[in-house]
Specification:
This protein is an alpha/beta fold. 44% of the residues lie in helices and 20% in strands. The protein has two domains: 3-145, NAD(P)-binding Rossmann-like Domain (Rossmann fold, 3-Layer(aba) Sandwich); 149-315, L-2-Hydroxyisocaproate Dehydrogenase, Chain A, domain 2 (Alpha-Beta Complex), CATH 3.90.110. The strands form four sheets. Strands 3-2-1-4-5-6 form a six-stranded parallel β-sheet, sandwiched between helices. A three-stranded antiparallel β-sheet has the order 7-10-11. The chain has a three-stranded antiparallel β-sheet with strand order 12-13-14. α3 (95-112) crosses α10 (290-315). The longest helix has 26 residues, at 290-315. The chain starts with a strand and ends with a helix.
């Protein structure tokens, strides 16, 4: 029996992940965990979802709860709880208040679901990945942030639309911070197996504009509709399904580094990994040109500084 628990399930991302995951029909039970004052809303969400799932003959048990004992036996526990990012806010602005929430949840997960994989969606996700890792005491292979998976999907979509080429032919990746200091790996991007640099010679691609658009993608959506929901929800559901099905796909997530990439250590950043039912099976070595390497190292120092600041405030 496959069981997934979502902490913060009444939020925009949490409930969308629950429904997307239920529709994928790969999970037997989803626990929609919320604060006691929000449990009625969680119940309402489950009733609404059941009606929709009936139309597709999907039988997935949806359990609204505010009792930690209900997350027992979960293979994956997703933390989406925290203050949402508003227009004009940087993800790092949310760091200290959200770290307190993530830390508390991670400690509870270690007590009630000690064999689970913790997946972090709360922003700033790279900082929160380290906070959850240290608070839970889990092996780093079992504490995973959504990292640059969504950024990589966005870059893939932008290139696909710009070139009018099926997205399955676009192979690209974004690493580093999930934020202003993300690093698109354009040097290793390929279209149908052909390096992007050869397409740039024959197709009008404004690379700086493309990167700027990518970095501003989340804030652009928030400014127009108030929140991001479909992109993050599908990206998170994709990660969960990849883990559950043990498919060993290479996806870009935030994980704590011990020198595996560019000799960076002691900080969580987005890097490509092989995902399995046990979590991170391996961190995949990547090639970066000098510019990308410098930016990746810059990102590591910025995230490290933010993480240290947050940890100092948690200790106060």
């Amino acid at each position: 029996m496959v069981k997934v628990s979502i902490l913060g399930a009444t939020g925009v991302i949490g409930k969308n992940v629950a429904f997307t995951l239920a529709r994928a029909d790969t999970v037997d039970e989803i626990v929609l965990f919320s604060r006691p004052q929000s449990v009625d809303k969680a119940k309402g969400e489950t009733f609404d979802m059941y009606d929709a799932l009936a139309a597709e003959d999907i039988d997935c048990l949806l359990t609204p709860s505010c009792d930690y004992s209900d997350i027992e036996g979960s293979q994956i526990v997703l933390i989406t709880a925290g203050a949402p990012r508003k227009e004009g806010m940087k993800r790092i602005d949310l760091a200290i208040p959200n770290a307190k929430i993530v830390s508390e949840y991670a400690k509870k997960i270690s007590l009630y679901a000690p064999d689970s994989i913790i997946l972090i969606a709360t922003n700033p996700v790279d900082v929160m990945t380290t906070i959850a890792l240290e608070a839970s005491g889990f092996d780093k292979k079992r504490v995973i942030g959504i990292g640059n998976h969504l950024d990589s999907l966005r870059l893939k979509a932008y290139i696909s639309r710009h070139l009018n080429i099926n997205s399955s032919e676009v192979h690209t990746r974004v690493v580093g911070e999930h934020g202003d200091h993300m690093v698109p790996l354009l040097s290793s991007t390929t279209i149908g197996g052909i390096p992007l640099k050869y397409f740039i010679k024959s197709v009008d691609i404004d690379v700086p504009r493309l990167i700027k658009r990518l970095r501003n993608a989340g804030n652009t959506i928030i400014s127009k509709k108030g929140a991001t929901e479909y992109g993050p929800s599908f990206a998170i559901s994709n990660l969960i399904s990849t883990i559950i099905t043990d498919s060993h796909k290479v996806l870009t997530v935030s994980t704590y580094l011990d020198g595996e990439i560019a000799d960076v250590e002691g900080v969580s950043l987005g890097v490509p990994v092989v995902l399995s039912k046990k979590g991170i099976a391996m961190i995949v070595p990547i090639h970066m040109n000098d510019y990308e390497m410098d930016k990746f190292i810059d990102a590591s120092e910025i995230v490290r500084k933010a993480t240290d600041e947050v940890k100092a405030n948690l200790d106060d």
